[in-house]
Structures are given as structure tokens and as C-alpha cells.
Amino acid sequence: MPTTTWNRHHVLSLADFTAAEYDTVLQTAASFQEVLSRRTKKVPTLQGHVVANLFFEPSTRTRSSFELAAKRLSADILNFAAATSSMTKGETILDTAKTYLAMGTDIMVIRHKEAGVPNAIAAEMDRLGVRVSVLNAGDGQHEHPSQALLDLFTICTLIDPAHPRLELLKGKKIAIVGDILHSRVARSNIWSLTASGAQVHLAAPPTLLPKLFAQYIFEESEGAQDLTKVQKSENTNQEFIISSSPSSPSSPSSPTSHSQNRQLFLHWHLEPALQDADFVMTLRLQKERMTAHLLPSLREYHHMFGITRTKLQLCKPNVKVLHPGPVNRGVEISSELMDDPEFSLIQSQVTSGVAVRMALLYLLGSGKTSAIQN
Amino acid sequence: MPTTTWNRHHVLSLADFTAAEYDTVLQTAASFQEVLSRRTKKVPTLQGHVVANLFFEPSTRTRSSFELAAKRLSADILNFAAATSSMTKGETILDTAKTYLAMGTDIMVIRHKEAGVPNAIAAEMDRLGVRVSVLNAGDGQHEHPSQALLDLFTICTLIDPAHPRLELLKGKKIAIVGDILHSRVARSNIWSLTASGAQVHLAAPPTLLPKLFAQYIFEESEGAQDLTKVQKSENTNQEFIISSSPSSPSSPSSPTSHSQNRQLFLHWHLEPALQDADFVMTLRLQKERMTAHLLPSLREYHHMFGITRTKLQLCKPNVKVLHPGPVNRGVEISSELMDDPEFSLIQSQVTSGVAVRMALLYLLGSGKTSAIQN
Amino acid sequence: MPTTTWNRHHVLSLADFTAAEYDTVLQTAASFQEVLSRRTKKVPTLQGHVVANLFFEPSTRTRSSFELAAKRLSADILNFAAATSSMTKGETILDTAKTYLAMGTDIMVIRHKEAGVPNAIAAEMDRLGVRVSVLNAGDGQHEHPSQALLDLFTICTLIDPAHPRLELLKGKKIAIVGDILHSRVARSNIWSLTASGAQVHLAAPPTLLPKLFAQYIFEESEGAQDLTKVQKSENTNQEFIISSSPSSPSSPSSPTSHSQNRQLFLHWHLEPALQDADFVMTLRLQKERMTAHLLPSLREYHHMFGITRTKLQLCKPNVKVLHPGPVNRGVEISSELMDDPEFSLIQSQVTSGVAVRMALLYLLGSGKTSAIQN
């Protein structure tokens, strides 16, 4: 088990994650991945601890992943599902959280359809001076940090299974394709992948790219104007460099300075994003976007932004494809490609999810425990 | 662990609870409260036992509390939620209970919207000669014994954390405010609190006071008539003394005779109930009472019966406020008061809930186990 | 624990179960029945293993039974309920199953309203070369093998509690009464009971008998024509012998040849099926059959095919009645008969269910574990 110091009390966003923190999560997850390959895939690390899954927005996949991660750490789990709950009638979300606090919860895993709810609960816990940790399992269109961390872990372990670390991605080209505008997965991935020194290329129809980014978009059809801009992020001191072409990467930097120059490229077409890409991350398309007239048709969307074996020929030969799931087969990705183990990392992502969530629960709970035993 | 004898096989109502039984629950819960302060909050007491949560009426708060209590005793839990269940189609509730019996359930925790269901199931189990225990987790407008016991524990441990016991409440003035008529919480609390020798003052609008009590109400505005009455309870041999004023308390009595003279006072206004009160228990207001024309408006209700810091000035200086939750902020209690740790015991109640429910499960299961180990 | 070899990787159907396999399940279940009579009803056999309950069709009874069986083997359980799930939106059932595979599931217990889903998932797992086992917990109108195995275990342990085995049923007359057409329970029971050498008599209104069988029906009112036919099953090499009367049983055969001659008799009336029966299995009547005009009325159905004490007088004196539950009291079976322990095995079936499901989970998981310990 790595002995890296971990001082973070909540995991709410990846915006201020340091390289050391990324590496700690990756290395801890690698240790748990090893545990999961044993015959008895369970450690007593969090025995007697209570993990409350407070899913105000329904989820089966993410909740099951956290539930299994907690069980494999021997924690006790309380599942709260707002849909079938008689709580929250009249009381606030903070009241609900405080009720679980008072029952003795150690870690709260929170999903909510509104951005900022996990932050608000974490702030209240801190105000109360209690040791409860909050883990954001997806809040509105804000962030989904555990998903981005499992994506990162999936990619890094592919490159170096024994020692996954952030710097492995330096100089890699990673395309993120699809509904960037509404995707908390994209938002968290942009933080982690740009922090690694990778070149991150977003590709989406104009209606599904954040307005904030739209003014900086590089449209190759308009000629190669020098559109390089530097934009100050609102939340942090880090800078986004939005370059006009892949030909102006950031200069080589030491591992500790990797987060200084973040490279983000935006495209209204798929092809320049796929060109020589090492990894292609596709995003789930919420079908309700159709009814909001943000998309012409699923067929046309697939024609323009759906990933197929043919389109992958633009990428590096050993390119891999990711998707957070559940996949709309034949929309974001062709059915045959999804099932092709040569290209698809989708199953690995699910497996990584359990290891990464074990790592997060372990790191958040480790202030109260000693170490992983078996 | 206290060595007090416990012969009760079911916990259905507090109507016939003896002082010794109250004290056994309080002392056992205190032991578990200590367990909960350890790093590993788990004991193997009920390992291999099955606790079935049969919640025919939805509940998150109470179910989670019982579920956590059972997990901390290392029991296996089966959750049954009628809302999402394909059972009970055609079969009776007794059939459902017998199915869980046949699966090997040791303790059934039952909530139902109809009064008497837990009693009926317990009677059937006894008729069958099986050892299954039934614990009433709220039945209609009848009783909610574990809630009243956790209220009692919360109050008693505030007075003497190490040795909570019934006699600590002797002579205390406790106000119960709100929808008494429809409240199973109030009904159970009236049994336990009057058994302790406390003076229990109910305050509610006339439409929300039980008709049974209404004829005995002491209305100070009508002058100090001698309205003292003695009323025989239908279910037990115990008597309710409904006195016209706090100036006629029962005479001092030995610990074993405390339940002989129960003092219950009823008010149509809040102020006389609050006057010099040591504790104020507020009840949840079901908003559907509004549509039934039992209430003018939530705002007016709050004006007349809502608890605020200002109104608390009528009480003893160190008065504490309780509420079973979930709270309608700004209705039963002002939002600022609810969050004020100087006055509010609401969080303590939730914490006490786990310890008291561990105690109840332990006592009901103890015929089959030896003692608390760690 | 029996040392019988068990090579089956999935339990999808009883159509190709061998006598040795039936006996292994029965004997293993008997061992677990003994475990369940201990004070601590838990064994560490499947510790660290993950059992996923994938119930695409709602079920409380069967899911609880599998859940308890898994808990008593110390497995970790993931519950998936399609009704409240956000999964399967856009993805296929196979995708959902592969997600649980990727999370590390060892055994999938699957219920679906469409016949063949468990088979399709098992085929996909085999194609992928993974070691996951699939257990059919009821698929459409196809099969429900664990129910038929628990029925078999219930009957066999009644005859010889210490050594339940298939040959105990040789020559017994067993009536299956009710909605044969739509019943996966009936279908699985027909495989196991005819394999045992018992004479199986189906009785149902013509509208609720499978069309496949209808042409061979023995209608005593039409005179005793020689309607004996031999019909080749579509799925296996086994033969159904549909005889015109119980007076032509198959000749005595050695234990290993018991499955050669399967005896199945069909009746449009109840009486010939009950005549001298040793066991009567009643089936649940789905009330929606009424609206499909397959039945006149529940009252008339009960009059013609409902089992009562009076009708049981046609049977052997010590006849027993089974029902998979939940029972429509007063429809398939009279209320008083259901509660009569002299005749009803319904509670025993539920208890057997946990032991039999422990046996199945144990046998499917035993490739990865050593043996039952305590």
C-alpha cells in the first residue's frame, strides 16, 4: 500500500486535485485491483464503518459499484433511494444528511440531479466539526469525479499495469466525443486529463458544446487562424490553453508542474479530434436532448459523431475506446465496436470502478483506520 | 451489560411496560451507546440471526435505523417493502409474515398503516408456538414504541449519561405539542412518560386532540374549575389521572409504584403547556390534515403551536426540544431553533435511535444468545 | 457433505438433469438444512464471492429466499431490480449482465418475464470464457428450476428426512392442478417428477392446458379409448409416455434408468387426478387470466379445481398439498386447508427453499471453494 500522505477529507471535484493526489488514488486502486484478483476478494479495512449511499437521483450502475466497493472493504452500507423514500417530505436535503450523520455514518456517497448538493452537504459537515467524509457520485451537470478517476485508472493501467501514474498520459492525444455540454463525466475528465499533460480534444455538435468554450473553437474549415487564447478558470488559478492546432503543445515540464499548462482543443467535427488519437472517450447521449431540439435525429447523430471501426482508422493503430455506460448501442458507438475487445475498454472501466471506489473509500476512511490488512 | 431479567417476547405497545422493563431497555441501550463510540462499532451478538424489516408502510428513517442496529449486532437483514413488492397479491399479511417465518426469521420488525397489524402477527406466531419476536415499528395511529423509548433514552441520558433510568423524570414537566390525535408517537410517549412520574402536558388545537381526552380538558380561560377526573384505560388496569392544575401532583411513591398515578394534562393553547416545562416534544404535522380541514393554515398553526425561541422563554431556562422527524421547518418548529444545539435534541434522538433499537433487538434475541461480546 | 461430482456450470432448466444431479442437490440441501437448525445458521463457504440478484421481473419471495441463502453462505449480494433501475435504458440485457460480470459477480441469479433470457446470458458468459454461473430464477412461462427442486426436496425429506433421493418417489402418484399452460413451475416440476419415476397427473380446464398436450388428453367421459401415445420432446432425447390410465405404469427399472420412461397423464377434470394421489401440487392462478377470458369466474374455478378437505378424500389418507405461493386463499385452495398442518406443506416449501438455494449456490460456487466449513 502506498504511504503517500492524503489530507483530503471530501472528494467533490477534480478541479483542485494535485498530481500527488491523482497518483495516490491510482496506486491505491492498483493495490485493490490486486486484492480483487485473490480468491477471497475482501479486506477488513473498514469493518464497523458505515457508508451511506444517498442517491437522490436514481442510479443502479454507480450505486452497485460503490456498494460492492464498500462491501469488499467490510463496511456496513445504508442505501437511501429518494424515489422510494418517505423522507425529504418537508425536510431539507441537509436535514436528511444530518439524520444519516446522527445515525453514525462515516462516509456519505451522494448523487443529486442538482449541481452543488455534495458541496453543500460537505460544507455543512465541516461547519458542524464532524469527521464525516462526502464523496460526490455525480451532481447535476457539474462533476462525477469517481467516474473520471476510474477512466484515468483504466487508461493508465493499460499503459503500465503495475505502476499507474498521471505522467503516463503526457503527450497522449485523447478525444472526448459527444454531449459535452450536459456531461458531468466530461467536466471531471477534462480536469484530470488536462492535468496529466495529455492533449484533450473535445468534439461535439455546436449545440452540445458549452457556450463558454464556443468562442474559442477551432474550426479548420474556416482556415488556420491563430485562435490560441488563454482563459482564466473561474474556480482555480489554473489556466486553460486552448490552442488552434496540435502543433503547439506545451513545452516539456517537470512532473510537479504538469498542471500549469492545460491543453484543450475544441472541434465541431469528429475527424480532427480522432486524428492520431490514442484514446477516444464517448459520452452517453441523453435521449431527452432530442425532444429539446438540440439534435436532428439519432441516426444523423450517429452518422456524424458515432464511433465506428471505420472512423477509428483515423486514430493511432492501437487506439482504445471508452464509454461511461450505459451505452445506446448504435448511437454513440456502433454495436460491433462496443463488443470488440481489441478496441473497447468498456468492461475494464466497470472493473476499474470497483477498485477506484475502494481506493477512495479507503483513503477517506484511513484517518480512522490503520492500513489494508488481509 | 445489565443482568436484569427480560421476559418479554414481543414489543408491541408500551401500555403494559413495567418500570423494570423501561430501566432494562435504558441500561442496555447505554451499553450499546458505549459500543458505538468505539472505533469498531460492531458486536457479534446476533450473528447468524435473521431480522426481517417488514415495512408495509414506507419509511426510510426508521427502517435505516433498525437496519443499522441489526447490522451492528451482526445480524442478517431481509428488507421487505410493500410498495415495490409482488407479494401480498392475494395472500394475507399473516401469510406474508408466515413466509418470512418459514425462511428462518428470528425477529420481525413491522410497520403498517393499520393499527393492530403487529399485534395480529405476534398473536399468530404465538398460536403457532414459534419463537419469533415481533417488534412494532409503528402501526397506524396506535403506537410506535421504539420511538418513545428512544425519546425516553435521549432525555434520561441528558440527565445522567452513565445511568439512564425512569425515575430521573419524576416531577419533570414535559409538554407534547401538535397533532396528538393522529400521532402514534404521542400515544407511546404518553405511556412511557406518565409511567416515569413526569407531568405530561398535551397541547393541541381542539381538532387534533383525541375526543376521548376532550371532555377532560383544562381550559384556563374558563376559570379554575375542579375538572380532576379519573379515567379507566380500556386496555390495562392502570389509571390516568387528568388533573386540573400542576398544583396537584401525585404523592411521592416508591420506584415500583411509579406507574400507579399517571398525570396527564390537556390544553387547547400552547402557553400553559410550555410554562416551566423541562422538555418540549413536538410532533410531525401531516400536511394532509390541512386538506381534511382540521387546520386553518400552516402559517396560523405555526403562529399558535409552532415552537420558537421566543415561546421557549416560558419554559425552564435549560429546556430542550425534541421532534421525531422529519421536521417541517417553520411549521412545528422554527428553522433557527431546530439548528440550535443549545435547545435541540433532534440529532441526539437519531443517534439514540440506533442504540435503543440495538437494545431491543438484543433483548428480544437474547433468549437464543448468551451476552454481548466484543 | 456429499462428495458427488458436480460438473454443471449453470442451472437453467431441469430438462437435462440426471438422476445423479438431482440426488446431489437433494443431499447437499439436506446438509444445509442441518446447518439451518444450528444456533448460528451461517457458514463461511462463499465469503468474498458476489451473488448478483438480477430480477428484471419483480419478486419478493424468491429474491428474499436467494438473498438469505447467499447471506448464510457469507456471500456478498448485489440486488438489481429493473423496476427501480436507471439501467437498461438503451442498453441490452446482455450489457446489463456484462456490467455485473465486470464488477466481479461470481453467480448471477436471473428472473425475467421473457423465456430464454437466463439461457442467453449463460451462453454469452460461456462465449466470453468467464467462470460466472447463471441460475434461472424463473423465465417467462419456461422454467423455474429452483422451485421444482425445493418441491422435490420437500416431498423427499418428508419420506426420508436423512437421505432424500429421487428414487423415493418411484410409483408415487402426484397431481399438478391449475394453470399448467402459463406455469413455469409446472414445467420444471414435470421434468423432475417424471424423472423420478412418479406418475404425474396434470389437471386443468382445457383452456389452461398446453395445446401440445391437448391432443393426447385422456377424457374419461368419452370412454376408455386407447389414447396412449409416445411423443418426442423437442429439446431432449427423453420420451414422454402419455398413458390412458394409471393401470399401465412403466415396468420397474434400475435407479439409473429411471428417466427413460416418463409417465404423464392429463385430465380435464380434477377427480381422476386426485384419485389415490400421494401429493397434490396446486399452482398459483394469475388473476389476469380472468380478463383474458380463459376462465369463467374465480368462484367457478374454485368449485371445479380448487382443493378442499372434501376433495382430498379421493386421495391417499396421508396426502399432502403443495403450493409455490403466494396463495390466492379460497381460489386454488380453501383457506382452512391451507392452514392445516396435517395436509399443507406450504410452510415446509418455503423453508426448503432456503436450503435448496444454498445447495445450488454452493454447488455452482464450489469450483472455486473447497468445502463447507463451520
UniProtKB/TrEMBL annotation, chains A, B, C:
Pathway: Pyrimidine metabolism; UMP biosynthesis via de novo pathway; (S)-dihydroorotate from bicarbonate: step 2/3
Gene Ontology terms: biological process: 'de novo' pyrimidine nucleobase biosynthetic process; 'de novo' UMP biosynthetic process; amino acid metabolic process
Gene3D superfamilies reported in the protein's UniProt record: Aspartate/ornithine carbamoyltransferase (3.40.50.1370)
Boundaries of every Aspartate/ornithine carbamoyltransferase Asp/Orn-binding domain copy: 170-364
EC annotation from Swiss-Prot or TrEMBL: 2.1.3.2
Positions that bind carbamoyl phosphate: R61, T62, R111, H144, Q147, G325, P326
PROSITE patterns linked: CARBAMOYLTRANSFERASE
List of residues binding L-aspartate: K89, R184, R284
Reaction(s) catalysed (UniProt annotation): carbamoyl phosphate + L-aspartate = N-carbamoyl-L-aspartate + phosphate + H(+)
Domain Aspartate/ornithine carbamoyltransferase carbamoyl-P binding as annotated: residue spans: 10-155
InterPro entries for the chain: Asp/Orn_carbamoyltranf_P-bd (IPR006132), Asp/Orn_carbamoylTrfase (IPR006130), Asp/Orn_carbamoylTrfase_sf (IPR036901), Asp_carbamoyltransf (IPR002082), Asp_carbamoyltransf_Asp/Orn-bd (IPR006131)
PANTHER family in the cross-refs: ASPARTATE CARBAMOYLTRANSFERASE (PTHR45753:SF6), ORNITHINE CARBAMOYLTRANSFERASE, MITOCHONDRIAL (PTHR45753)
Similarity-based family: Belongs to the aspartate/ornithine carbamoyltransferase superfamily. ATCase family.
Subunit details: Heterododecamer (2C3:3R2) of six catalytic PyrB chains organized as two trimers (C3), and six regulatory PyrI chains organized as three dimers (R2).
Function: Catalyzes the condensation of carbamoyl phosphate and aspartate to form carbamoyl aspartate and inorganic phosphate, the committed step in the de novo pyrimidine nucleotide biosynthesis pathway.
Identification of the protein by name: Aspartate carbamoyltransferase
Lineage, highest ranks first: Bacteria, Bacillati, Cyanobacteriota, Cyanophyceae, Nostocales
Gene giving rise to this polypeptide: pyrB
